[in-house]
Design brief:
The chain has 109 residues and is an alpha+beta fold. Helices cover 40% and strands 20% of the residues.
């Protein structure tokens, strides 16, 4: 999911993707989902960490409303997104959009 600038709102397309994910998850027997939120480089570190956590929580809350047990979700905010693992520097427009993502990883146990 790619969020708007400074936003935690899910789009109609995001909700459709999450509905499909929830159905697949519930049918699969996979034990856990990891939901990780990110932010772009705008704003201070603490704000971006909080924003990334709120984005991940927005996704998790939608998944719970779709029938997934909250205990099967691991939710975290990662702060500023970086493809290289480095922080700071100038982002391109594409990188900035990637900074407003929430990634959902499937853990198979």
């Amino acid at each position: 999911m790619i969020f708007g600038f400074d936003s935690t709102s899910l789009s109609t397309e995001d909700k459709a993707s999450l509905d499909a994910l929830a159905q697949e998850f519930l049918a699969s027997g996979v034990s856990r989902l990891r939901v990780t939120g990110y932010a772009d480089e705008h704003g201070d570190r603490e704000y971006n960490l909080d924003l990334s956590r709120r984005r991940a929580e927005a996704v998790a809350q939608y998944l719970v409303a779709s029938g997934i047990d909250a205990g099967r979700l691991y939710v975290r905010g990662q702060g500023i997104y970086s493809n290289t693992g480095e922080s700071g520097g100038t982002m391109t427009a594409g990188q900035a959009a990637h900074g407003r993502i929430v990634r959902v990883d499937v853990e198979v146990n």
